[in-house]
Amino acid sequence: xxxxxxxxxxxxxxxxxxxxxxxxxxxxxxxxxxxxxxxxxxxxxxxxxxxxxxxxxxxxxxxxxxxxxxxxxxxxxxxxxxxxxxxxxxxxxxxxxxxxxxxxxxxxxxxxxxxxxxxxxxxxxxxxxxxxxxxxxxxxxxxxxxxxxxxxxxxxxxxxxxxxxxxxxxxxxxxxxxxxxxxxxxxxxxxxxxxxxxxxxxxxxxxxxxxxxxxxxxxxxxxxxxxxxxxxxxxxxxxxxxxxxxxxxxxxxxxxxxxxxxxxxxxxxxxxxxxxxxxxxxxxxxxxxxxxxxxxxxxxxxxxxxxxxxxxxxxxxxxxxxxxxxxxxxxxxxxxxxxxxxxxxxxxxxxxxxxxxxxxxxxxxxxxxxxxxxxxxxxxxxxxxxxxxxxxxxxxxxxxxxxxxxxxxxxxxxxxxxxxxxxxxxxxxxxxxxxxxxxxxxxxxxxxxxxxxxxxxxxxxxxxxxxxxxxxxxxxxxxxxxxxxxxxxxxxxxxxxxxxxxxxxxxxxxx
Length: 511
Fold this sequence. Notes:
Belongs to the aldehyde dehydrogenase family. By secondary structure, this protein is of the alpha/beta class. It folds into two domains: about 1-250 and about 465-485, Aldehyde Dehydrogenase, Chain A, domain 1, CATH 3.40.605; about 255-455, Aldehyde Dehydrogenase, Chain A, domain 2 (3-Layer(aba) Sandwich). About 35% of the residues lie in helices and about 20% in strands. The chain has 15 helices and 22 strands. The strands form six sheets. The chain has a seven-stranded mixed beta sheet with strand order 15-16-17-14-13-19-20, sandwiched between helices. A five-stranded parallel beta sheet has the order 10-9-8-11-12, with helices on both faces. Helix 1 crosses helix 7 and helix 3 crosses helix 4.
Protein backbone atom coordinates (compact mmCIF):
# COMPACT_ATOMS: atom_id res chain seq x y z
CA UNK A 1 0.00 0.00 0.00
CA UNK A 2 1.25 3.50 -0.83
CA UNK A 3 0.72 6.25 1.73
CA UNK A 4 0.39 9.82 0.56
CA UNK A 5 0.17 13.39 1.73
CA UNK A 6 -3.39 14.49 2.51
CA UNK A 7 -4.19 18.09 1.63
CA UNK A 8 -7.65 19.57 2.13
CA UNK A 9 -9.04 16.08 2.68
CA UNK A 10 -7.65 14.62 -0.56
CA UNK A 11 -4.76 12.21 -1.13
CA UNK A 12 -1.94 13.98 -2.97
CA UNK A 13 0.35 11.79 -5.06
CA UNK A 14 3.98 12.91 -5.19
CA UNK A 15 6.70 12.54 -7.78
CA UNK A 16 8.57 9.63 -6.16
CA UNK A 17 7.85 6.65 -3.95
CA UNK A 18 10.08 5.44 -1.12
CA UNK A 19 9.84 2.24 0.93
CA UNK A 20 9.74 2.45 4.72
CA UNK A 21 11.44 -0.58 6.24
CA UNK A 22 11.51 -2.16 9.69
CA UNK A 23 14.88 -1.34 11.33
CA UNK A 24 14.72 -4.61 13.25
CA UNK A 25 14.16 -6.60 10.03
CA UNK A 26 15.51 -4.49 7.18
CA UNK A 27 14.06 -6.73 4.48
CA UNK A 28 10.53 -6.12 5.80
CA UNK A 29 8.75 -3.23 4.06
CA UNK A 30 6.23 -1.64 6.40
CA UNK A 31 4.77 0.48 3.62
CA UNK A 32 5.57 2.80 0.76
CA UNK A 33 5.19 6.55 0.88
CA UNK A 34 4.65 8.96 -1.99
CA UNK A 35 6.84 12.03 -1.48
CA UNK A 36 5.55 15.47 -2.32
CA UNK A 37 7.62 18.59 -2.76
CA UNK A 38 7.67 22.26 -1.77
CA UNK A 39 4.50 22.89 -3.77
CA UNK A 40 2.73 20.21 -1.74
CA UNK A 41 3.70 22.02 1.44
CA UNK A 42 2.52 25.39 0.13
CA UNK A 43 -0.74 23.85 -1.09
CA UNK A 44 -1.35 22.43 2.38
CA UNK A 45 -0.67 25.84 3.92
CA UNK A 46 -3.17 27.42 1.52
CA UNK A 47 -5.80 24.83 2.47
CA UNK A 48 -5.17 25.37 6.17
CA UNK A 49 -5.39 29.13 5.76
CA UNK A 50 -8.72 28.83 3.95
CA UNK A 51 -10.19 26.56 6.65
CA UNK A 52 -8.98 28.50 9.68
CA UNK A 53 -11.69 31.09 10.16
CA UNK A 54 -14.54 28.59 10.11
CA UNK A 55 -12.68 26.24 12.48
CA UNK A 56 -12.06 29.12 14.90
CA UNK A 57 -15.80 29.88 14.81
CA UNK A 58 -16.54 26.44 16.27
CA UNK A 59 -17.08 27.05 20.02
CA UNK A 60 -14.08 26.03 22.09
CA UNK A 61 -16.04 23.49 24.20
CA UNK A 62 -17.14 21.80 20.98
CA UNK A 63 -13.54 21.67 19.78
CA UNK A 64 -12.75 20.17 23.18
CA UNK A 65 -15.30 17.42 22.62
CA UNK A 66 -13.70 16.69 19.26
CA UNK A 67 -10.38 16.25 21.07
CA UNK A 68 -12.10 13.90 23.53
CA UNK A 69 -13.46 11.77 20.68
CA UNK A 70 -9.96 11.55 19.21
CA UNK A 71 -8.65 10.32 22.55
CA UNK A 72 -11.26 7.60 22.76
CA UNK A 73 -10.58 6.40 19.21
CA UNK A 74 -6.83 6.32 19.86
CA UNK A 75 -7.47 4.40 23.07
CA UNK A 76 -9.60 1.87 21.21
CA UNK A 77 -6.79 1.38 18.67
CA UNK A 78 -3.87 1.68 21.11
CA UNK A 79 -2.41 -1.79 20.64
CA UNK A 80 -2.58 -1.66 16.84
CA UNK A 81 -0.98 1.79 16.76
CA UNK A 82 1.76 0.71 19.19
CA UNK A 83 2.53 -2.37 17.07
CA UNK A 84 2.90 -0.10 14.05
CA UNK A 85 5.28 2.18 15.98
CA UNK A 86 7.36 -0.89 16.90
CA UNK A 87 7.38 -2.14 13.31
CA UNK A 88 8.39 1.15 11.71
CA UNK A 89 10.95 2.61 14.14
CA UNK A 90 11.96 -0.41 16.25
CA UNK A 91 10.82 1.00 19.59
CA UNK A 92 10.19 -1.81 22.11
CA UNK A 93 6.48 -2.56 22.26
CA UNK A 94 6.07 -1.65 25.93
CA UNK A 95 7.56 1.78 25.26
CA UNK A 96 5.47 2.18 22.11
CA UNK A 97 2.30 1.42 24.06
CA UNK A 98 3.32 4.00 26.66
CA UNK A 99 3.86 6.53 23.88
CA UNK A 100 0.36 5.94 22.54
CA UNK A 101 -0.94 6.45 26.07
CA UNK A 102 0.60 9.93 25.97
CA UNK A 103 -1.79 10.84 23.17
CA UNK A 104 -4.74 9.70 25.26
CA UNK A 105 -3.50 11.61 28.31
CA UNK A 106 -3.01 14.74 26.21
CA UNK A 107 -6.52 14.49 24.78
CA UNK A 108 -7.99 13.88 28.24
CA UNK A 109 -6.25 16.97 29.59
CA UNK A 110 -7.24 19.29 26.75
CA UNK A 111 -10.87 18.22 26.76
CA UNK A 112 -11.23 20.35 29.89
CA UNK A 113 -9.23 23.23 28.44
CA UNK A 114 -11.97 23.66 25.83
CA UNK A 115 -14.03 25.12 28.70
CA UNK A 116 -11.08 26.96 30.25
CA UNK A 117 -9.67 29.14 27.48
CA UNK A 118 -10.10 31.89 30.01
CA UNK A 119 -9.56 35.60 29.60
CA UNK A 120 -9.82 38.11 32.42
CA UNK A 121 -12.02 41.00 33.48
CA UNK A 122 -9.63 43.74 34.61
CA UNK A 123 -10.54 46.83 36.70
CA UNK A 124 -10.06 50.16 34.93
CA UNK A 125 -8.54 53.29 36.43
CA UNK A 126 -11.51 55.23 35.02
CA UNK A 127 -15.20 55.27 35.86
CA UNK A 128 -17.74 53.74 33.47
CA UNK A 129 -15.14 51.62 31.71
CA UNK A 130 -14.36 47.89 31.67
CA UNK A 131 -11.21 46.06 30.53
CA UNK A 132 -11.03 42.49 29.23
CA UNK A 133 -8.52 40.03 27.80
CA UNK A 134 -9.23 37.18 25.39
CA UNK A 135 -7.21 34.31 23.93
CA UNK A 136 -7.26 34.25 20.13
CA UNK A 137 -5.85 31.48 17.91
CA UNK A 138 -2.61 32.38 16.17
CA UNK A 139 -4.05 31.14 12.85
CA UNK A 140 -2.28 28.58 10.65
CA UNK A 141 0.41 26.42 12.25
CA UNK A 142 3.19 24.39 10.63
CA UNK A 143 4.25 21.41 12.76
CA UNK A 144 7.48 19.58 11.88
CA UNK A 145 8.29 16.58 14.06
CA UNK A 146 10.96 13.91 14.52
CA UNK A 147 10.27 10.18 14.31
CA UNK A 148 11.72 8.90 17.58
CA UNK A 149 8.33 9.69 19.14
CA UNK A 150 6.23 9.52 15.98
CA UNK A 151 2.82 9.82 17.67
CA UNK A 152 3.29 11.29 21.15
CA UNK A 153 5.22 14.43 20.18
CA UNK A 154 2.92 15.36 17.27
CA UNK A 155 -0.02 15.15 19.67
CA UNK A 156 1.71 17.65 21.98
CA UNK A 157 1.50 20.21 19.17
CA UNK A 158 -1.60 19.19 17.25
CA UNK A 159 -4.04 18.68 20.14
CA UNK A 160 -3.62 22.12 21.79
CA UNK A 161 -3.31 23.87 18.43
CA UNK A 162 -6.62 22.39 17.26
CA UNK A 163 -8.29 23.09 20.59
CA UNK A 164 -7.26 26.76 20.40
CA UNK A 165 -8.85 27.16 16.96
CA UNK A 166 -5.81 26.85 14.71
CA UNK A 167 -5.46 24.84 11.51
CA UNK A 168 -2.37 22.76 10.84
CA UNK A 169 0.14 21.64 8.25
CA UNK A 170 1.96 18.62 9.71
CA UNK A 171 5.19 17.33 8.25
CA UNK A 172 6.30 14.16 10.09
CA UNK A 173 9.71 12.49 9.90
CA UNK A 174 10.59 10.81 6.64
CA UNK A 175 11.44 7.53 8.43
CA UNK A 176 8.02 7.11 10.11
CA UNK A 177 5.50 7.83 7.32
CA UNK A 178 3.24 4.82 7.77
CA UNK A 179 2.55 5.37 11.46
CA UNK A 180 2.09 9.08 10.67
CA UNK A 181 -0.72 8.28 8.24
CA UNK A 182 -2.36 6.05 10.84
CA UNK A 183 -2.14 8.84 13.42
CA UNK A 184 -3.59 11.30 10.90
CA UNK A 185 -6.55 9.04 10.10
CA UNK A 186 -7.36 8.55 13.78
CA UNK A 187 -7.34 12.30 14.35
CA UNK A 188 -9.42 13.21 11.32
CA UNK A 189 -11.97 10.45 11.84
CA UNK A 190 -12.06 10.69 15.63
CA UNK A 191 -12.43 14.46 15.65
CA UNK A 192 -14.69 14.75 12.64
CA UNK A 193 -12.33 17.46 11.42
CA UNK A 194 -13.44 19.44 8.35
CA UNK A 195 -11.24 19.33 5.26
CA UNK A 196 -8.21 21.58 5.52
CA UNK A 197 -8.14 21.76 9.32
CA UNK A 198 -5.39 19.13 9.59
CA UNK A 199 -3.17 18.48 6.57
CA UNK A 200 -0.42 15.86 6.25
CA UNK A 201 2.64 16.46 4.07
CA UNK A 202 5.33 13.92 3.20
CA UNK A 203 8.45 15.50 1.72
CA UNK A 204 12.18 15.59 2.38
CA UNK A 205 14.07 18.15 4.44
CA UNK A 206 15.09 20.57 1.66
CA UNK A 207 11.57 20.64 0.19
CA UNK A 208 10.11 21.14 3.66
CA UNK A 209 12.35 24.14 4.31
CA UNK A 210 11.69 25.60 0.87
CA UNK A 211 7.93 25.08 1.23
CA UNK A 212 7.93 26.62 4.69
CA UNK A 213 9.94 29.59 3.44
CA UNK A 214 7.49 30.24 0.61
CA UNK A 215 4.50 29.82 2.91
CA UNK A 216 5.93 32.38 5.32
CA UNK A 217 6.68 34.78 2.48
CA UNK A 218 3.09 34.47 1.26
CA UNK A 219 1.67 35.04 4.75
CA UNK A 220 0.15 31.55 4.95
CA UNK A 221 1.84 30.38 8.17
CA UNK A 222 1.49 32.20 11.51
CA UNK A 223 3.40 29.83 13.80
CA UNK A 224 5.96 27.04 13.45
CA UNK A 225 6.47 24.19 15.88
CA UNK A 226 9.62 22.11 15.40
CA UNK A 227 11.06 19.09 17.19
CA UNK A 228 14.47 17.92 16.04
CA UNK A 229 18.17 18.69 16.16
CA UNK A 230 19.65 21.90 17.52
CA UNK A 231 21.32 22.58 14.15
CA UNK A 232 18.06 22.47 12.21
CA UNK A 233 16.30 24.35 15.00
CA UNK A 234 18.69 27.25 14.52
CA UNK A 235 17.76 27.39 10.82
CA UNK A 236 14.03 27.27 11.60
CA UNK A 237 14.43 29.95 14.26
CA UNK A 238 16.35 32.21 11.88
CA UNK A 239 13.78 31.73 9.11
CA UNK A 240 10.79 32.52 11.32
CA UNK A 241 12.64 35.45 12.88
CA UNK A 242 12.93 37.09 9.49
CA UNK A 243 9.12 37.11 9.42
CA UNK A 244 8.85 38.46 12.99
CA UNK A 245 7.70 35.12 14.33
CA UNK A 246 9.03 33.05 17.23
CA UNK A 247 9.03 29.33 16.56
CA UNK A 248 8.24 26.75 19.23
CA UNK A 249 11.53 24.83 19.27
CA UNK A 250 12.06 21.55 21.11
CA UNK A 251 15.61 20.48 20.31
CA UNK A 252 18.35 18.14 21.46
CA UNK A 253 19.88 17.53 24.85
CA UNK A 254 23.02 16.47 26.66
CA UNK A 255 21.17 15.51 29.78
CA UNK A 256 23.15 15.04 33.02
CA UNK A 257 22.44 12.65 35.86
CA UNK A 258 24.22 13.46 39.13
CA UNK A 259 24.88 10.70 41.66
CA UNK A 260 25.62 12.05 45.15
CA UNK A 261 27.31 10.20 48.05
CA UNK A 262 23.91 9.73 49.73
CA UNK A 263 22.24 8.24 46.65
CA UNK A 264 20.57 4.85 46.60
CA UNK A 265 23.02 3.37 44.09
CA UNK A 266 20.75 0.58 42.91
CA UNK A 267 18.03 3.11 42.15
CA UNK A 268 20.54 5.39 40.42
CA UNK A 269 21.74 2.51 38.26
CA UNK A 270 18.18 1.63 37.31
CA UNK A 271 17.48 5.24 36.39
CA UNK A 272 20.69 5.60 34.40
CA UNK A 273 20.01 2.35 32.52
CA UNK A 274 16.56 3.47 31.36
CA UNK A 275 17.66 7.06 30.77
CA UNK A 276 20.64 6.08 28.69
CA UNK A 277 19.43 3.07 26.74
CA UNK A 278 15.64 3.18 26.56
CA UNK A 279 14.65 3.79 22.92
CA UNK A 280 18.31 2.87 22.22
CA UNK A 281 19.37 6.27 23.55
CA UNK A 282 17.45 8.05 20.81
CA UNK A 283 15.39 10.44 22.89
CA UNK A 284 15.98 14.15 23.23
CA UNK A 285 15.85 13.45 26.98
CA UNK A 286 18.27 10.50 26.87
CA UNK A 287 21.06 10.50 29.43
CA UNK A 288 24.27 12.08 28.14
CA UNK A 289 26.66 12.01 31.10
CA UNK A 290 26.55 10.48 34.57
CA UNK A 291 28.29 12.86 36.98
CA UNK A 292 29.11 10.71 39.98
CA UNK A 293 30.81 11.65 43.24
CA UNK A 294 34.37 10.35 43.46
CA UNK A 295 33.60 8.48 46.69
CA UNK A 296 31.03 6.24 45.00
CA UNK A 297 32.38 6.29 41.43
CA UNK A 298 33.93 2.83 41.41
CA UNK A 299 30.95 1.14 43.05
CA UNK A 300 28.45 2.91 40.80
CA UNK A 301 30.44 2.14 37.64
CA UNK A 302 30.74 -1.52 38.59
CA UNK A 303 27.00 -1.86 39.16
CA UNK A 304 26.10 0.23 36.10
CA UNK A 305 28.29 -1.67 33.65
CA UNK A 306 27.03 -4.97 35.07
CA UNK A 307 23.44 -3.82 34.52
CA UNK A 308 24.23 -2.73 30.95
CA UNK A 309 25.90 -6.07 30.21
CA UNK A 310 22.89 -7.97 31.56
CA UNK A 311 20.26 -5.84 29.82
CA UNK A 312 18.14 -7.54 27.18
CA UNK A 313 18.78 -6.17 23.70
CA UNK A 314 17.13 -7.26 20.47
CA UNK A 315 13.75 -7.90 18.89
CA UNK A 316 11.53 -4.96 19.93
CA UNK A 317 8.40 -7.11 19.89
CA UNK A 318 9.87 -8.98 22.87
CA UNK A 319 10.61 -7.85 26.43
CA UNK A 320 13.86 -5.92 25.80
CA UNK A 321 15.45 -2.74 27.12
CA UNK A 322 16.40 -1.57 23.65
CA UNK A 323 15.86 -2.54 20.07
CA UNK A 324 17.54 -1.27 16.89
CA UNK A 325 18.50 2.23 15.86
CA UNK A 326 15.70 4.09 14.13
CA UNK A 327 17.09 4.26 10.63
CA UNK A 328 20.27 3.70 8.62
CA UNK A 329 21.18 7.39 8.77
CA UNK A 330 21.16 7.27 12.57
CA UNK A 331 23.27 4.11 12.57
CA UNK A 332 25.83 5.83 10.37
CA UNK A 333 25.87 8.87 12.63
CA UNK A 334 26.16 6.70 15.74
CA UNK A 335 29.28 5.06 14.35
CA UNK A 336 30.74 8.56 14.05
CA UNK A 337 30.01 9.11 17.75
CA UNK A 338 31.90 5.93 18.60
CA UNK A 339 34.86 7.49 16.81
CA UNK A 340 34.86 10.25 19.43
CA UNK A 341 36.12 7.80 22.07
CA UNK A 342 39.64 8.87 23.07
CA UNK A 343 42.65 7.02 24.56
CA UNK A 344 42.03 8.60 27.98
CA UNK A 345 38.53 7.07 28.04
CA UNK A 346 37.73 3.65 29.45
CA UNK A 347 35.14 1.50 27.70
CA UNK A 348 33.90 -1.66 29.39
CA UNK A 349 32.65 -4.31 26.99
CA UNK A 350 32.13 -4.43 23.22
CA UNK A 351 31.08 -1.59 20.97
CA UNK A 352 29.75 -1.26 17.43
CA UNK A 353 27.17 -3.19 15.44
CA UNK A 354 26.06 -6.50 16.88
CA UNK A 355 26.64 -9.48 14.59
CA UNK A 356 28.32 -12.84 14.24
CA UNK A 357 31.75 -11.23 14.42
CA UNK A 358 30.74 -8.91 17.27
CA UNK A 359 28.18 -10.86 19.32
CA UNK A 360 26.26 -9.89 22.42
CA UNK A 361 25.49 -12.46 25.09
CA UNK A 362 21.77 -13.04 25.49
CA UNK A 363 20.77 -11.16 22.34
CA UNK A 364 17.06 -11.63 21.60
CA UNK A 365 16.32 -12.51 17.96
CA UNK A 366 18.40 -12.22 14.80
CA UNK A 367 21.04 -9.50 15.13
CA UNK A 368 22.02 -9.71 11.46
CA UNK A 369 18.50 -8.79 10.38
CA UNK A 370 18.50 -5.25 11.75
CA UNK A 371 20.35 -2.14 12.91
CA UNK A 372 21.36 -3.43 16.34
CA UNK A 373 24.26 -1.91 18.29
CA UNK A 374 25.96 -2.60 21.60
CA UNK A 375 25.08 -0.21 24.44
CA UNK A 376 28.30 1.55 25.46
CA UNK A 377 29.49 3.16 28.70
CA UNK A 378 32.50 5.49 28.40
CA UNK A 379 34.23 6.39 31.66
CA UNK A 380 36.63 9.30 32.10
CA UNK A 381 34.91 11.85 29.87
CA UNK A 382 35.59 15.51 30.59
CA UNK A 383 34.83 18.99 29.26
CA UNK A 384 36.51 19.51 25.91
CA UNK A 385 35.78 15.95 24.78
CA UNK A 386 33.20 15.90 21.99
CA UNK A 387 31.55 12.96 23.71
CA UNK A 388 31.04 15.20 26.77
CA UNK A 389 30.16 18.44 25.00
CA UNK A 390 27.85 17.33 22.18
CA UNK A 391 24.63 15.37 21.90
CA UNK A 392 25.19 11.70 21.00
CA UNK A 393 21.95 10.33 19.61
CA UNK A 394 22.25 6.62 20.33
CA UNK A 395 23.13 4.05 23.02
CA UNK A 396 26.24 5.67 24.49
CA UNK A 397 26.59 7.17 27.99
CA UNK A 398 29.58 9.04 29.42
CA UNK A 399 30.70 8.96 33.04
CA UNK A 400 32.74 11.56 34.93
CA UNK A 401 33.46 12.38 38.58
CA UNK A 402 33.16 15.38 40.88
CA UNK A 403 34.27 16.40 44.35
CA UNK A 404 31.74 19.07 45.40
CA UNK A 405 28.16 19.72 44.42
CA UNK A 406 29.23 23.09 43.00
CA UNK A 407 31.55 21.23 40.63
CA UNK A 408 28.82 18.75 39.72
CA UNK A 409 26.40 21.53 38.78
CA UNK A 410 29.11 23.29 36.78
CA UNK A 411 29.76 20.06 34.86
CA UNK A 412 26.03 19.52 34.34
CA UNK A 413 25.60 22.99 32.82
CA UNK A 414 28.87 23.02 30.86
CA UNK A 415 27.70 21.58 27.49
CA UNK A 416 25.19 24.44 27.10
CA UNK A 417 22.09 22.34 26.58
CA UNK A 418 19.21 22.73 28.99
CA UNK A 419 16.48 20.17 28.40
CA UNK A 420 16.38 17.51 31.11
CA UNK A 421 18.42 16.67 34.18
CA UNK A 422 18.42 14.36 37.16
CA UNK A 423 19.95 14.05 40.62
CA UNK A 424 19.99 11.01 42.88
CA UNK A 425 20.24 11.99 46.53
CA UNK A 426 18.60 11.55 49.91
CA UNK A 427 19.83 14.97 51.08
CA UNK A 428 17.10 17.63 50.63
CA UNK A 429 19.68 20.43 50.57
CA UNK A 430 21.45 18.83 47.61
CA UNK A 431 18.13 18.37 45.81
CA UNK A 432 17.04 21.99 46.27
CA UNK A 433 20.46 23.40 45.43
CA UNK A 434 20.59 21.38 42.22
CA UNK A 435 17.06 22.42 41.28
CA UNK A 436 17.88 26.06 41.85
CA UNK A 437 21.11 26.20 39.87
CA UNK A 438 20.70 23.72 37.02
CA UNK A 439 19.97 25.33 33.66
CA UNK A 440 17.62 22.60 32.47
CA UNK A 441 13.94 23.21 31.88
CA UNK A 442 13.11 19.87 33.54
CA UNK A 443 14.55 18.40 36.73
CA UNK A 444 14.06 14.92 38.17
CA UNK A 445 14.96 13.98 41.72
CA UNK A 446 15.56 10.25 42.15
CA UNK A 447 14.05 9.56 38.73
CA UNK A 448 15.32 9.26 35.19
CA UNK A 449 16.11 12.07 32.77
CA UNK A 450 13.31 10.76 30.57
CA UNK A 451 9.61 11.03 31.01
CA UNK A 452 7.05 13.77 31.49
CA UNK A 453 3.35 13.98 32.21
CA UNK A 454 0.74 15.59 30.00
CA UNK A 455 -0.02 18.37 32.48
CA UNK A 456 3.59 19.53 33.06
CA UNK A 457 5.50 21.95 30.81
CA UNK A 458 8.00 20.18 28.54
CA UNK A 459 10.91 22.00 26.97
CA UNK A 460 14.39 23.37 27.38
CA UNK A 461 16.77 26.29 27.20
CA UNK A 462 20.10 27.06 25.56
CA UNK A 463 20.94 24.60 22.79
CA UNK A 464 17.80 22.65 23.73
CA UNK A 465 15.30 25.31 22.72
CA UNK A 466 14.24 28.93 22.92
CA UNK A 467 12.31 28.70 26.17
CA UNK A 468 9.01 27.66 24.60
CA UNK A 469 7.09 24.93 26.37
CA UNK A 470 4.84 22.10 25.32
CA UNK A 471 2.17 20.26 27.32
CA UNK A 472 -0.11 21.48 30.08
CA UNK A 473 -1.69 24.91 30.09
CA UNK A 474 1.67 26.49 29.20
CA UNK A 475 1.58 25.29 25.59
CA UNK A 476 -1.53 27.41 25.00
CA UNK A 477 0.76 30.45 25.01
CA UNK A 478 2.33 29.02 21.86
CA UNK A 479 -0.94 28.65 19.99
CA UNK A 480 -2.93 31.66 21.20
CA UNK A 481 -2.34 35.40 21.29
CA UNK A 482 -3.69 37.71 23.94
CA UNK A 483 -6.17 40.36 22.82
CA UNK A 484 -7.01 43.25 25.16
CA UNK A 485 -10.32 45.10 24.95
CA UNK A 486 -11.38 48.33 26.65
CA UNK A 487 -15.08 49.20 26.65
CA UNK A 488 -15.96 52.76 27.59
CA UNK A 489 -19.66 53.44 28.26
CA UNK A 490 -19.24 56.90 29.82
CA UNK A 491 -20.48 58.67 26.71
CA UNK A 492 -17.38 60.85 26.51
CA UNK A 493 -13.75 60.42 25.54
CA UNK A 494 -11.66 59.38 28.52
CA UNK A 495 -7.92 59.49 28.03
CA UNK A 496 -5.94 56.92 29.96
CA UNK A 497 -3.23 58.34 32.23
CA UNK A 498 -4.58 61.84 31.48
CA UNK A 499 -8.12 61.80 32.80
CA UNK A 500 -7.76 59.38 35.70
CA UNK A 501 -9.64 59.96 38.95
CA UNK A 502 -7.37 60.98 41.81
CA UNK A 503 -8.14 61.11 45.54
CA UNK A 504 -6.97 64.12 47.55
CA UNK A 505 -5.39 62.92 50.77
CA UNK A 506 -4.55 65.39 53.54
CA UNK A 507 -0.82 64.92 53.84
CA UNK A 508 -0.46 67.59 56.57
CA UNK A 509 -2.62 65.82 59.18
CA UNK A 510 -0.85 65.04 62.45
CA UNK A 511 -2.10 63.36 65.62
